[in-house]
Amino acid sequence: MLFSVLTTNLFALYAFTSTPTQTPTPLHSNSHKNMSLISQHVSLILKEIQVSQNKLSKMEKQLLGYDNIDISRPNVANELKFFLQHHTLPLGKDSRSGITEMVASVGHTCEKSMELLSQYMNYKVGGACNDDWSLAQKLILRGCEPLPRRRCFARIVPKVGLLHFPLSLWKPISDKIVSWSGLNCKSFACLGTKKISNDCVGCFDLVNGTEKYRFLRAKSKNDFLVDDVLSLGSGGIRIGFDIDGGSGTFAARMAERNVTVVTSSLNVDAPFNEFIAARGLFPLFMSLDQRFPFYDNVFDLVHAANELGSGGKPEKLEFLMFDIDRILRSGGLFWLDNFHCVDEERKKTLTRLIERFSYKKLKWVVGERIDESRKSQVYLSAVLQKPVRV
Fold first, then answer.
1. Which of these, 208, 215, 123, 143, lies nearest to 170 by C-alpha position?
2. DSSP string, 303-370
3. Which of 124, 129, 208, 300 is most deeply buried (CB count within 10 A of its CB)?
4. Interacting residues of 271 by C-beta distance below 8 A, sequence separation 6+
5. Which pLDDT score is estimated for 68?
6. pLDDT tens-digit series, residues 189-244
7. Is the pLDDT of residue 309 over 70?
8. Does 267 have pLDDT greater than 90?
9. Following DSSP, what letter does each residue of 165-208 receive, concatenated?
């Protein structure tokens, strides 16, 4: 392309500058002027090409997310600068992926929280990490996800008194094996007196609370029993994913039935992840805004509680539903458990969205509950089966 541009411009310049004039001039003088003009134009063309190439390269890097975070700012932690550096592959271009360098994986919206991010990355290399899990969660909730890796040792909390599986599923968890830093409550007894969310009222009391009979006894027509749902699964239910699964009771019920379930959760006002792990279950510390870190069509069952896609624009719920559909295999079940329909429009939006996926409705129940303010609230529960798409 560069050769063509240069050739075309050289011929054009020659045509315009070689027009004969009435007054004859020496041949050597004309040739010198023509060459001078050609050199000037070629120089200008080369400069414009270089500027265009620089602009294209900058646009490409911005699109790829290479330079979203400006590490030249003052007071940026050195560890963050080092982590975000591009690392050239030692053997050059990779023949399979086509990449020539490794780029750090970090959320693009971290740029909006540079002060907090730099604070998170300010530590002694090889030393103990700061007790800053709450800072990490604050960054995640601001969209700074995934967080950069760090070269420090996480604070250790002795896990003394853990029980063997499956006894661990329903035995009380000791306060001593949980980190209470950054939380208002410092014990499970304190948490038992608080309503942390609609899905967690006394959810840390495994002996005397409502968790003991959850998914085994129905309090309303919207509550489905776990054995009834499992019987609907074609090809068997072996592995599942629980979105925003509270204290892990759904995963515990499934574990009793030899089904492995991964539970996503954040530590909002309570140590959910540590509690789930202490029960011998698999916690995943992530927000709903992140793409699920699983391959396509791998889960037999996806369970989502009533906090699914609460608030925000309909497009946000749509993105979430498409990601749920991506990780669920054909014939797999999507269990929507007590989805709170804030208003009639919200229910219609969700219903239209589900119909777009052409799921088979195995169970579909719309019911009402009276909340603390004596107002009637509408909830939708459903078990949907993903179709086989061509």
1. 208
2. EE-TTTT-SS-HHHHHHHHHHHHHHEEEEEEEEEEEEEE-SHHHHHHHHHHHHHTT-EEEEEEEEEEE
3. 300
4. 178, 179, 180, 183
5. 60
6. 999 888 887 778 889 999 888 899 999 999 889 999 999 999 998 778 999 999 98
7. no
8. yes
9. TTGGGSSPPPGGGS--TT-S--SHHHHTTSEEETTEESTT-TTT
**5, two tokens:** 């541009």
Structure confidence at residue 12 (pLDDT): 61
Q: Is 136 helix (H, G, I), strand (E, B) or coil?
A: helix
Across residues 123-135, what is the average pLDDT?
93
Read off the pLDDT of residues 333-365 as tens digits, 9 standing for 90 and up. Answer: 999 998 888 777 777 888 888 899 999 999 999
**Distance (Å, whole) CA 126 – CA 34:** 67
User: Which of the pair, 2 or 173, is modelled with greater confidence?
Assistant: 173
Euclidean distance between CA atoms 42 and 129, whole angstroms: 58
CA 12-16-22 angle, to 5 degrees, is 160
Domain limits, the chain: 61-156, 167-385
Handedness of CA 171, 174, 180, 186 (dihedral sign): positive
The tokens for 360 are 């088979």
Q: What is the CATH number of domain 167-385?
A: 3.40.50.150
Q: How many contiguous H segments (helices) and E segments (strands) does the chain have?
A: 11, 11
Please check whether residue 229 is in contact with residue 382, taking contact to mean a CB–CB distance below 8 angstroms.
no
CA angle 353, 365, 259 (to 5 degrees): 85
Strand partners, 201: 195
Is the link from the previous residue into 148 a cis peptide, with omega within 30 of 0? no
Q: Extract long-range pairs of 167-176: CB within 8 Å, 24+ residues apart.
A: 168/278, 168/279, 168/280, 169/252, 169/255, 169/256, 169/279, 169/280, 169/281, 170/206, 170/207, 170/212, 170/252, 171/206, 172/206, 172/207, 173/204, 173/206, 173/275, 173/278, 173/279
CA distance 221 to 370: 14
Q: Which residues contact 60 (CB under 8 A, 6 or more apart)?
A: none
- Residue 325 CA to residue 332 CA, distance in Å, equals 10
Instruction: Give the SS3 label for residue 253.
Output: helix
- CA-nearest of 150, 149, 152, 151 to 128 is 152
φ/ψ (deg, to 5) at 382:
-155, 150
Query: What is the model's pTM?
Result: 0.76
